[in-house]
Specification:
Layout: E1 4-8, H1 26-38, E2 45-48, H2 54-57, H3 63-71, H4 81-86, H5 102-121, E3 127-130, H6 151-160, E4 166-170, H7 177-182, E5 189-196, E6 220-225, H8 231-249, E7 253-257, H9 275-286, E8 292-295, H10 302-316, H11 353-368, H12 388-391, E9 393-394
Helix pairs in contact: 1-10, 5-6, 8-9, 8-11, 9-10
Length: 404
Amino acid sequence: MGKVCYFMDSDIGGYYYGQHHPMKPHRLAMTHNLMLAYGLHEHLDVYRARLATAEELTHFHSTEYIDFLRRINPDNAQDFAKQLQRFNVGRTGGDNPIFDGLFDYCCLYASGSIDGAKKLLTGKAQIAINWAGGLHHAKKSEASGFCYVNDIVLAILEFLKYWPRVVYIDIDVHHGDGVEEAFYVTDRVMTVSFHKYGDNFFPGTGDIWDKGSGAGEYYAVNVPLKDGIDDESYFQIFKPVVEKVFETFQPSAVVLQCGTDSLARDRLGGFNLTVKGHARCVEFVKSFGVPMLVVGGGGYNIRSVARCWLHETSVLLDRQVDDRIPYNDYWEYFAPEYRIHQPPLDLPNKNDPEYLDKVRSKVLENIRHLTCAPSVQMQEIPPMMYDVDEEEEAMDPDTRGGKG
């Protein structure tokens, strides 16, 4: 197995969307602390995330929008009334609040994905992990669904400079609409999203008939699912779809979004996956041996988030970890069982076999419209094109611990 690199900044857990907001960056501090308690950092190349520059963010986002994010703060929000509405930020009780350090937060989580892509491009890692990333709803000029900057799109654009094809796979409970929209008319990126659809569930996109347009027709793959889906049902549709995607598209790289709101017990999701079931999908994508950027995403039960991303890091490292959680700074959060794995809930699975067969057949039929992987004239990566060791600082042991 090739090297696995891991991006983390000890400050990112301190950003705060607000008291009643379901998004808690604190979950990243908990995940990182579990990583330390299990000793997984000893098997990872750990890097401290840097602050991405405003110019880097405009590789996808509009200059006006990034300038707005850079300037806005809780004290001057009243001066930006028109822009707040235009960019979908700061509405009272809205999804995308203004909070202290908002722009630095965006730059931190985006840099881990951008620099993870660079590590893979230069062969310095086979797998790059940025649990702070995966904010898949952000649009070119608009915040959406707790997401301000789309780190995934920025990372994919990095890959496309030198590699012909990238596949994006999303196992968050919500449709990966921002990424799909960004690449809806190109055949160089295939987006594959497994998500809850219907009942006015956010963001309301991702129907099975949404399949891309123009040169990108059939390169957007949507697998709409219903409440209560369990591990077995999920993998029964995940495996054949992903197999067909890799066989047909032959990607140079894969970006896997691992939102944990598809787990049982999530505050916003309605699925019934366990940590093992979620991680089985990660392990299956890894089995193709394609350079792999792994990012976080949704997840609104912070205990489940930390459990899941800890376990999935161990899967990516091919290392088994004890189910019993060792003592750590957040040990009391995992009471009373103090274990990684929890059973599913007793919920009805609204995805009956007939429905899943129908969805699987239609999705595979759509993919079969693609007779071969698109070819594209590419240039070689120049030696020393990316000296990423200068761009991010490797973490020393003294900076890896502590609460965020």
